[in-house]
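Key result, reporting period 2: structure in, sequence out.
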């Protein structure tokens, strides 16, 4: 089976930039403020330019164990997806603030290297009705949908998360969890067009570039169906949120022809970025944060929101079935849906905040970030953003197999 979603979204490049800034005596906050102020992140495309269960009982349980009641919480997330103490000007991160306010000791791990890897690691425990040891895990839409479908997620007690009222309306009702009974967004991001201006001569915002013979053998696409197939469907006038399986399979044929004809150089994981930077690719389907993180060292890189629409993905907080500290997990969710906390988080991770009011709160942190479209896209931009609809098990299996056959990955 292919890896049907992002692997490790982050690259080492931002770390390198930050390390260099630190050697120069520049704090991370100051570094990002300078980047924001210079407008170094290139965004093209008219859309963005015009706008942009059961009650939990806390225990001392560690992963895979149970114990006596206590005040603990175990969170598993993607790498570099939360602000840290060392990057805070006052020496206090949002996690620190949560612990101080609630008295809950948080064990925070960065064990989600990919959705498929995480699921594969814990599926046997979940299927056997055994707890994973984590009270919250952050998974992308399609995997969250699978967890819900298989009965591997606890239902959120909305009464314990009153700040859910701050959830942005555009994210309030996904097909896989229409009333957000099982998930709550952590952050979102965009998949669009990355390009090398040395080869394209300027911004590229039309998905027709994937078919342009001028770039034959210089096009890169992403593994799986969420990103690449979604954008091909948009080019063909289909909505990934409502398309039938037959329509998806027809677009898979389109993808297969691009691969067979040699138009596409390769189907990539995270290594697409290296190929784009070193000139092997002129154009690649790309994740917005990756391009931003590398623009200082590779100023030829640009990112555009496609004219036909952009794929938006969301990484969701989810309580795995049998979590020992469910009530504490709900307190964590509620805390991060305070606008001021959401703003602090978004300021560090540079992805789309799902919390209404975070933009206003950002003004108290750094006004140069208030109008950053990668953090606060406006309604016009969100209206052009598309999600891939949730698939049932049979559909997912058939589509995965078709995409694997078409791409050879």
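The corresponding designed sequence is given below.
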């Amino acid at each position: 089976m292919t890896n049907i979603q992002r692997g490790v979204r982050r690259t080492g490049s931002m770390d390198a930039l930050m390390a260099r800034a630190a050697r120069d005596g520049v704090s991370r906050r100051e570094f990002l403020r300078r980047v924001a102020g210079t407008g170094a992140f290139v965004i093209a495309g008219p859309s963005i330019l015009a706008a942009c269960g059961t009650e939990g009982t806390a225990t001392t349980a560690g992963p895979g164990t149970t114990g006596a009641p206590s005040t603990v919480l175990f969170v598993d997330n993607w790498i570099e997806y939360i602000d840290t103490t060392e990057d805070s000007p006052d020496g206090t991160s949002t996690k620190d603030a949560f612990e101080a306010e609630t008295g809950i000791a948080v064990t925070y791990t960065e064990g989600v290297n990919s959705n498929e890897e995480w699921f594969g690691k814990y599926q046997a425990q979940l299927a056997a009705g055994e707890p994973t040891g984590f009270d919250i895990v952050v998974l992308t839409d399609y995997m969250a949908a699978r967890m819900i479908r298989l009965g591997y997620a606890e239902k959120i007690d909305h009464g314990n998360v009153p700040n859910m009222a701050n959830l942005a309306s555009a994210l309030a009702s996904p097909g896989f969890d229409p009333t957000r009974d099982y998930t709550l967004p952590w952050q979102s991001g965009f998949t669009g067009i990355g390009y090398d201006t040395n080869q394209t001569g300027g911004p590229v915002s039309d998905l027709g570039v994937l078919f342009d013979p001028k770039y034959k053998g210089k096009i890169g696409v992403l593994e799986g169906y969420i990103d690449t197939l979604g954008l091909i469907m948009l080019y063909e006038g289909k909505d990934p949120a409502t398309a039938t399986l037959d329509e998806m399979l027809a677009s898979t044929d389109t993808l297969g022809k691009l691969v067979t004809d040699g138009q596409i150089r390769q189907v990539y994981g995270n290594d697409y970025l290296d190929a784009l930077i070193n000139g092997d690719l002129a154009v690649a389907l790309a994740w917005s944060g990756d391009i931003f993180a590398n623009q200082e060292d590779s100023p030829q890189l640009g990112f555009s929101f496609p004219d036909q629409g952009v794929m938006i993905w969301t990484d969701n907080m989810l309580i795995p079935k049998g979590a020992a500290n469910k009530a504490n997990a709900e307190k964590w969710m509620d805390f991060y849906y305070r606008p001021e906390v959401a703003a602090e988080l978004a300021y560090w991770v540079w992805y789309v905040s799902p919390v209404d009011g975070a933009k206003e709160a950002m003004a108290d942190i750094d006004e140069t970030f208030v109008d950053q479209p990668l953090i606060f896209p406006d309604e016009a931009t969100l209206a052009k953003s598309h999600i891939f609809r949730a698939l049932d098990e049979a559909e997912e299996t058939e589509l995965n197999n078709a995409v694997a056959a078409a791409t050879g990955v």
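The CA atoms of residues 207 and 235 lie 6 Å apart. Residues 1-68 have pLDDT under 50 and may be disordered. This case is discussed further under Risks and Mitigation.
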